[in-house]
Design brief:
It is a single chain. By secondary structure, the protein is mainly alpha-helical. It has one domain. The protein is 70% helix and 8% strand. It is built from nine helices and five strands, in the order H-H-H-H-H-E-H-H-H-E-E-E-E-H. The strands form two sheets. A three-stranded antiparallel β-sheet has the order 1-3-4. A two-stranded antiparallel sheet has the order 2-5. Helix 1 crosses helix 5 and helix 6 runs parallel beside helix 9. It is globular. The protein starts with a helix and ends with a helix. Keywords: Membrane, Transmembrane, Transmembrane helix. This is ABC transporter permease.
Amino acid sequence: MRAFKGLFIKEIKLSRNWFLIGLALFILAIFAGLALKRYFNEPEILPIVSIMILVAHGLYLPAFLITSLNTEGQSQLWLHNPNSGVKLFLAKLAAGSVYFLISLLLAMFFVHWQVNLSDHGGGVTEFIEEPFPNMMLMGVAIVLSSIYLGVWVLFYWSFYHSLKRVPIARNFRWPILIGFWILLEVVSNYIQNLPFYKNLKQSGVISLDFMKSIKIEVGDSLDTGKVVEAAEISLTNGIIYAAVVILVFFIAVWLLERKVEV
């Protein structure tokens, strides 16, 4: 535990600039939304921008891990590191998650403020009757999506660098990586379209009847988002994705410890 704590603190310190850059981009996007709001004289633009910022947080953890892992590859900080691959990867995931959650909570607060503010003016309507149900569901979905993509980043980074040890593949790592990704996508789509898998997804479904849709009115136009209307959650599907994440994580660890030279 002491070794992991040390790795975690190291990752927090090394990634501080990343968090500050992300915060600066967050603020820049808000000012851009304000500028567009004033230019077009449409008060609904800023709530829309705030929702876009929130959704974009799904890529926060993957982007953090790509940057952090590339730093490791260039600096050789992991060379001869006595800690296990599990601790090395978990430390990065934990540090990234801390910054990710802070930024996500700020984005959720901003969305909540802007939607409610606009709601009083008649712009974005029927997003939530109570303060938190929709926001909490969106937040949980973004967190889970970001973690899922982040673990795949760990795998592909490990796979890419493991090809260094294969002389014939060393100069073709990107084509091999892209080809492998396409192959996994084809296999995944095939499995998901199987009747057995479709029936499996329908088991353990929870319907969220309290959710409301998003109605965005800009000028004379009206756009209703069905993102969260009549939402359903499949517990079986969640278990399958959790198992995939765990399996992919440990494959990435195995590649790091056995095949990757960083």
